Amino acid sequence: MSLATEPAPSAPGRKAAPPRVAMVGAGQLARMTHQAAISLGVELRVLANSESDPAVRAGAEHIIGSYRDIDDLRNLAAGCDVLTFDHEGVPVEHLTALEQQGINLNPGAASKRLAQDKLHSREVLTDLGFPTPPWTFASTPEDFRSFTSHHGWPVVAKAPRGGYDGRGVWMIESLGEACELLDGSTDGFIIEPLVNIERELAVLIVRSTGGERASYPVVETIQRDAMCREIHAPAPVSSKVSARATAMASEIAAVTGATGVLAVEFFLTPDGLLVNELALRPHNSGHFTIEGCVTSQFEQHLRAVLGLPLGLPSLIAPAVSTFNIVGQPDGTDPRSQLERVLEVPGAHVHLYGKSPRPGRKLGHVTVCGQDPEPVREAARLAAATLERSRS
Amino acid sequence: MSLATEPAPSAPGRKAAPPRVAMVGAGQLARMTHQAAISLGVELRVLANSESDPAVRAGAEHIIGSYRDIDDLRNLAAGCDVLTFDHEGVPVEHLTALEQQGINLNPGAASKRLAQDKLHSREVLTDLGFPTPPWTFASTPEDFRSFTSHHGWPVVAKAPRGGYDGRGVWMIESLGEACELLDGSTDGFIIEPLVNIERELAVLIVRSTGGERASYPVVETIQRDAMCREIHAPAPVSSKVSARATAMASEIAAVTGATGVLAVEFFLTPDGLLVNELALRPHNSGHFTIEGCVTSQFEQHLRAVLGLPLGLPSLIAPAVSTFNIVGQPDGTDPRSQLERVLEVPGAHVHLYGKSPRPGRKLGHVTVCGQDPEPVREAARLAAATLERSRS
């Protein structure tokens, strides 16, 4: 006489173990990957520096350790289906060693090296015939002299390893400055002329372990103080430029055997597109995909490194803008502005749970809509609200 | 000579404590609330039965305890800004006691009682003049006899407390069955005739502590075996019906002082809309809002109970369908079908990390698109894939 099908108290069932992903790093990229993992029922374990790392605060399973310690990396990977990354810091020799020990790395050591080691990346891209800014490797004053005799001063010098958000990048105006820079380093530098940049673009390609690829729409990125501050999708460029950037990025993913998310940063110059840099991980330029695309870059990264089918990368609205929230000089905490920012209609607010420090990425906001201008303005307003001092 | 603004190693800053929300229950509703909390930088602490509860597996901070134990409830609330709920099980006397002790409950004890105690709810709705199915409270055979002398057999009998997913609901065909039912109970029953239902509809209203309200589009819910299996937004009803349902739900939220998400379930009958049931928490009929609306019901619930401004509830696409994934009699685990379901284009897959049991809600899938039929078909295909045995 019961209307309901009473569930049996227990049933033998066929239990499937959830996929387990280990991620080196516990920053905001791991935090947002954890959110995507929850939906798919994937279990994420991260390697954190401390209990206050963003992904740990979000409740990802974690071990505390160092990405420079191969034992910590091995412990992280133990029992997981795949080892992946939320940054580019792991020493390449460790990646190679882990792979030789049979750990399933995605991306693998060879492709990950393209993002870890900018010199190697430039060499490979140049060998494969992809256009990059003119460049050379400079470890002596003579290298600077010779390069500038063709290209003139100033030059931009980049550390081959470890730079991000403008760190590890210097503008060098003279041989004197070059000597001073060289004095502080044993590694040498990639040097290139100041390129005439019309726009900076980025393309995210996802490539699964089975070789399936998906391309997100080309975005424009806008930097201030050498940090990416705005991302606008789709980029306001011709369909020809957009198709060319997508084709190049997709080809780079294929020829390098990258797995997971590959971010390719481009300079659009009067002479065409130049490849600037690669990242093999979910990327700041892809946060717009969380609300702006059918499948977020974080879910795609998980699908790809686990060898699962990829999702649709298409936009859900004609215009999507993301602004990064960066720590201000007065140290104000964006969290103190939560009430005010939530008044901005349509603003998707992401706060990473980090203590405020000047120049630190503390969150981002995304707005989706019909027309680029109002979308951009709403995102700008939300970002300004979060970065504004309460006083 | 650095191109970057070097972040100061540390700055005094003005640190803002993140809002802290305590939630009674750690099921899938708490799990998805946790995902929303991560974005806003809100810290969620849940009261779990065990370490294997869905929200605990997703990494929400938790304490293990019982929602029937007032000390556990008090411990849960300690240090949090607000206490809220992912189910309707907390004894009403505990809610009242907690509120008297100064704990900030949202929804408050008086409004929460409307969802906890169906008899009270029917009395209040009837007193306020909202249309419900004809009903009476029956605790003796005479009560059944008198009611059926007007309305005939069969009647639907509902336990005043604790029922969900068809549990606590009985179809009673005769006085003999009524006597049998009464023999097993001391509480009595709400009885009502079998209503001629054209469609079942649901409306989610969000009401913040400040009184701000937001209404999600009216959805159609489709039940099988007395469990909600499909949710389609917007409901295929006239704009008049839709406006009337929204107005009633919104009025119920206002007059009852509900805070957070209020779900109002309606029967659409040849004689108009009847209010069936209320829930004061994020609701199964609102999972479509995660990908289908600008602001999800889970984020709205957090905003509302914290007294923050509400987000836009509008649809991001003309048609959104959600199918629940329910444990099958053979005990097959939907997680074993993850690879296959991710092949369904546009399917947003949510798995709750629960062990499979027949009749248990294990996940859901949502599809958004331009036209109702293909959207519904894609969601149906994804659900069928997850519920299908591997063999």
Task: Describe the fold and architecture.
The structure is a homodimer of 391-residue chains. In chain A, helix 1 (28-40) crosses helix 11 (297-305) and helix 5 (109-116) crosses helix 6. Chain A is an alpha+beta fold. In chain A, 31% of the residues lie in helices and 25% in strands. Chain A folds into 3 domains: 20-105, Rossmann fold, CATH 3.40.50.20; 134-193, Dna Ligase, domain 1 (2-Layer Sandwich), CATH 3.30.1490; 199-387, 2-Layer Sandwich (D-amino Acid Aminotransferase, Chain A, domain 1). Residues 1-13 of chain A have low confidence and may be disordered. In chain A, the strands form 3 sheets. In chain A, strands 9, 10, 11, 12, 13, 14, 15, 16 and 17 form a 9-stranded antiparallel sheet that branches. In chain A, strands 3-2-1-4 form a 4-stranded parallel sheet, with helices on both faces. Chain A has a 4-stranded antiparallel sheet with strand order 5-8-6-7, with helices on one face. The N and C termini of chain A lie far apart (66 Å).
